[in-house]
Amino acid sequence: MTRMNKQLLAVSVALALAIGALVWVLVSGPSESQAPGAKPSQSGSTETATRKIAARLYYVAEDGVHLATVDREVEYGEGTVEQASRILEAQLGPAPAPFSTAIPEGTKLRAVFVSGLGEAYVDLSPEMGAKHPGGSLNEFLTVYTIVNALTTNLPAITAVQILVDGKEIDSLAGHVDLRRPLQENVRWVAPPTPPEGLTTNQ
Amino acid sequence: MIFSRKALVSASLLTLMGLAVALYGQGTAPSSPLLLLTREGRTPLPTFMVNNQEMVALDELAGVFKFAVREDTVTNAVRVTHRDKSILLTPDQTLVSVAGRLVSLPAPLMRSGRRPPGDGRWLVPVEFINRAFALVHDEPIELRKPSRLLIVGRLQVPRVALHYETVGNDLRVSFDLTPTVGHAIVQEARRLLVRLEADAIDPAIPAPPAQNLLAGVRVLDTKTIELTLGQRFGSYRSSLPTSTPASSRILVDLVPSAPEVTAAPPAPTPPPGATIPGGDPLPGFSARRPTIRTIVIDPGHGGDDAGARGPSGALEKDITLAVARRLKAAIEGRYGIRVLQTRDDDRLIGPDGRAAYANNNKADLFISLHANASRNGGAKGAEIFYLGLDKYGDEARKQAHLEGGVLPVFGGGSRDIELVIWDLAQARHVDQSAVLAGIIEAQLRTTKVDVGTLASQQGPMRGLAGVNMPAVLIELGYLTNPAQERALRSEAYQTLIAQALTDAVAAFRDYSEGNVGETVRGADPSGGTRGPDPSVRRADPLGPPLGTEPPPVAPASFGR
């Protein structure tokens, strides 16, 4: 093969790869259906093109006695159960300053189930109970962080029951009754002072 | 035959290991089997303790309830079929599908023993019976774990709690029946027999105090309680001062024999065997029964459950016990009301045990004491909680007021009964609990106890749900606040709290008896709306419309 032929072959291969990549990008764009009640959006990264939705998450306000709401982008999930898992995974993560999280450190999501009646069962790791600091107020803030995170963002979920380590529990620290699903409750949600750089609600 | 020492030691070790393996695999037996009560009779139902969870063999239940059990070896699931309805259970999964509905159990389906799959028996938590199987069964099923009873069918099995009280020279024995059933009292020689018109009884009988009127109490048969009379017994009086379909109290006063030297005319006594159902109180009884006769104070947490912890090490369980003791002394000393504590030492009691203690003692008020915690060290102030209900509790509340039943009684006829859902017994008392919370908040403010900005609040409180009387949970202050921790540890502040709560009890008693007088009106120095005016305090227990804030002085509401 002559040198010219080699160059021609290399250019042809490069061109074919470029065309192939272009076709793949065009064909494999986002096509999933939207989860019920979720608001879809695109992340700013052009490389990953991971689909996101806007979700309202709950954190302990600076006064320590209320929950503040923060709108954040969380990963898109196919269907109610998958989307609930993505929202909870985001909710279990660290809180944005100046807020703190009501979820005990180290708590992990084990599973989510949703019944035909719209009752979600959220199974969390043992840290949820074992590392809870106690007190009625803390317990309310913890419980309604989970309950509200799902009921606010997913209309298909009407109530939430928290399980720990795969089992139904009476309460986290002796105060809030967790033996049955709880509905959304905004009693402990207060309008926070909007901190810089964050979109807050109410 | 002679065995070598080595062989004997080996055999012993093998036996011990075998026993250990067997115990590990099968679980240990609980203190007693469940007693299955049906129209046909009584049958013990063996259960096993596995990892602190009481389990029952599925094949045992299949024999009792005549359901089919089919194992799917592909999915490793077990299907229970009863009258065309199915329950699907999966090992390692606490959620089971009952005719398409998900139900949560405290433990998953598991195999007994350590033998190969297929050889061991399938075990399910005993709660499977009342939570899952009851949904596909055509008769009601009630599991009373503390009493070790499993009641199948519409049987009349009242709870019967006895307590004793010295009234002058008499010994009063109270029988608290829940629900109410007919009764008859018969004297036979040196014993009194209290016979109840029930299929069985669920008794709670403490030992009688040391005296000479009553020598002993025991359950004679399935529906009779026997009082063995003491040496000083002369006669008895019985009455039924309170009776609703839901509950009633039978009073039996044991009167000592009159001393021979006494010239006083003999007291009128009813003929033996007579009882006065619903009749007027006999001579010697007050014409007006006080509304608050017994109060149960519940010091929160205890034992391994220390509760919240202050920065200097103060423990919630110690603070609540100290305040409870002061409060008991203050109420008893000032008003002579009987005060009981769910615990008077450092031990752990579950929420159902605390509620059962109050219910069995027929308390008129339940006050649970706690100390709060916050992530913000500056949070401070006492808060008062009472039960809030969402759609589940709302249905229970409606049923508590509306739902009843008609049961046949012995001798013909029928009796209307009111059904109590023990899981949410508090549902029927929410309005009164709201009043009590408001009064307590007012008294705490009057007494200069630091009260939080959230003040009275309504929520799904676990410890109040099963309490069958007006009930509140008081967070005395924030242990996570260093200044409040110091205050809560101090004798002076504890006494101040006890004083405020004692005044609140008196004010609530006045309110209940219709004497809303000076005690209450003086509670709020602002002279405004903090008094126990029912029109103000009787907020809708389900809360205001969505998105609205509760009025500033009314108890906070549960709901959106």
SSE map:
The complex is a heterodimer of chains A (202) and B (560).
Chain A: H1 3-27, E1 39-42, E2 51-60, E3 67-75, H2 79-91, E4 109-114, E5 119-124, H3 127-130, H4 136-153, E6 159-164, E7 167-168
Parallel strand pairs in A: 5-6
Antiparallel strand pairs in A: 1-2, 2-3, 4-5, 6-7
Chain B: H1 5-26, E1 34-38, E2 41-45, E3 48-50, E4 53-57, H2 58-65, E5 68-72, E6 77-82, E7 85-89, E8 95-98, E9 101-104, E10 110-111, E11 122-125, H3 127-132, E12 141-144, E13 149-152, E14 159-167, E15 170-178, E16 183-188, E17 191-196, E18 202-204, E19 214-221, E20 224-229, E21 233-243, E22 248-256, E23 294-299, H4 316-335, E24 338-341, H5 351-360, E25 365-372, E26 382-387, H6 391-402, E27 404-408, E28 414-418, H7 430-446, E29 451-459, H8 462-465, E30 471-478, H9 482-489, H10 491-512, H11 518-521, H12 534-537
Parallel strand pairs in B: 1-13, 14-18, 23-24, 23-25, 25-30, 26-29
Antiparallel strand pairs in B: 1-2, 3-4, 4-11, 5-6, 6-7, 7-8, 8-9, 10-11, 12-13, 14-15, 15-22, 16-17, 17-20, 19-20, 21-22, 26-30, 27-28
